[in-house]
Amino acid sequence: MNEPSKRQNSGARHEAIDAGDFVYAATGARVRRLTMPDGSHWFPAADVCKELGYTTTRKALTDHVPEEHRDNLETVTGSHSLSVPAGRTWRRDLQLIDLQGLILLVNACTKPACAPFKQWVAEVIETVQREGSYRLDEAEVQPAEPGAPIAYAMPDQVAEAIVRLEAHNMQLDEQLAEGQRTSIALQREMLSTQQATLATQQATLAVQQAMVRALERIADRFDTLVLHQGVPRGRPAPVPTTESVLADWRQRLSVTEDVWTVARAIAPVLVEKGELREPLESVAARTGLSVRRVNACLRLLRTHACIRSRGGSEDGAPVYVLHQV
């Protein structure tokens, strides 16, 4: 994108070929441009080198552009009492080249798009050497305003280069548009696939949830029908009593007096409430044993599969249930 012209008077020189078209034909690209009040044009060296295929701007300038045809942005604008253009890309130390520096870079590059312009430059030089001058043909249609400058026809090589560039750009635009259309179609297809996948996942989740609910119902029904493993189907499971529990425990281990004291204290609670949810201190108070001894007795009952632990209550008390065999 070119900066607006900085010309401040009507006496600015007339250009035989529009600067934008001239640079476009020379570089094959629309390059940013600053036009000074005296009509001179300056271009960011990095922009030109990038479009012409130079890998290093500094080396390209050192090799091909004399110092009098390059300067930094602050010096160029300051010499005309102008401020630096706004924007982060217009740094004060930005290296600029004038039109002659641009032409020198074009002549030194190997970009195929620059070949027609370079051929025209060679023709101009050859004509000047042969005839002493080179003059553009006047355009068939001249401005009607009195005193208007003469309009010149664009050289064939320059015009053909611009036509080819525009055709190439139109082709690239069409390719870009086609690529965008293809990308949109792919995105829509991916979205449709994702939606189908989501629907499948939701259906699978619903099936899994239904299976979990069914298994929970089966487990609940089994718990209510079978209390002891090995009870024949169709016969109700015997309901445990304190006496049957204590008798079973006597068969499982050699009961010491302390263990039997703890067993008699907790068996009625386990049978009546289905669980023992009582701090060890409370059991110790009821049995007259120490907390450590109560804990040892409970551990022994667990070891011999008389009771089993079911974690702890909210207040920290251990929870025990009968170990159903």
UniProtKB/TrEMBL annotation:
Coiled coil: none
SMART domains in the cross-refs: Bro-N
PROSITE patterns (alphabetical): BRO_N
Name by which UniProt lists this protein: DNA-binding protein
Organism: Streptomyces coelicoflavus
Record keyword Cell division present: no
Domain of life: Bacteria
Pfam families per UniProt: Bro-N (PF02498)
Entry keywords, A to Z: DNA-binding
Gene Ontology molecular function: DNA binding
Domain Bro-N: from-to ranges: 14-132
